[in-house]
Amino acid sequence: MSTEPPPPSLTERRKAATQLDIAHAAAELFATRGPHATTAEEIAQRAGVALRTFYRYFRSKQDAVSPLLTVGADRWRGLLADTEPGSPLLPALRQAAERALAVPDAQAAEALLRTRGLLRAGADDPALRAVWYRVNQESEERLVPVVARLTDGAVDPLEVRLVAAAATDAVRIAMETWAGGDAGTEGPGSPAELAVRCLERLLGGAEKG
């Protein structure tokens, strides 16, 4: 019997598309005006939705960008989920991070630069920063069963949670470090390069336990 989740319904796909439209509108306005000078009404208008629709999906204007902040983590977790159980842990995490943060085209580079702008805006907006930390916490929780499956029962639950926490923090720190500088989206100092460095430093001994 298949364990694959059923594909999203048409209603779910439309909901996700609307949320992403609102998220893009919020990110654009935050980039040009800053979070403090942007209202939820303006975000809704830019996205072409009613204000009540905005609040149906998001609790605040800062929360509206959460779909954009979760994209990389979702891609990374999906790549890990496709990895053969029992594969060496650190190489699997490293390869997934490299692929998730790769920039094969202009659209991928634009997405990373948009995240950089949001993280920089969060430096002066506690509510936006809180959204970023919440997204990372949720990502860590969702990573636990993926790591458990990847280790194929060879690692105890406490170690699995520690690995999920360390891996999530490694990528978070890499993104924050990159956002605070001027490095490009590829090469030295890029998100992918920094994420690999952080993973190796934080998880280098994980496979020795």
Automatic annotation (TrEMBL):
Residues 16-76 form the HTH tetR-type domain. Residues 39-58 bind DNA. Transmembrane segments: none annotated. The keyword Transcription applies. InterPro entries: DNA-bd_HTH_TetR-type_CS (IPR023772), Homeodomain-like_sf (IPR009057), HTH-type_TetR-like_transc_reg (IPR050109), HTH_TetR (IPR001647), MftR_C (IPR041347). Keywords: DNA-binding, Transcription, Transcription regulation. The keyword Transcription regulation applies. SUPFAM superfamilies: Homeodomain-like. This is TetR family transcriptional regulator. It comes from Streptomyces parvulus.
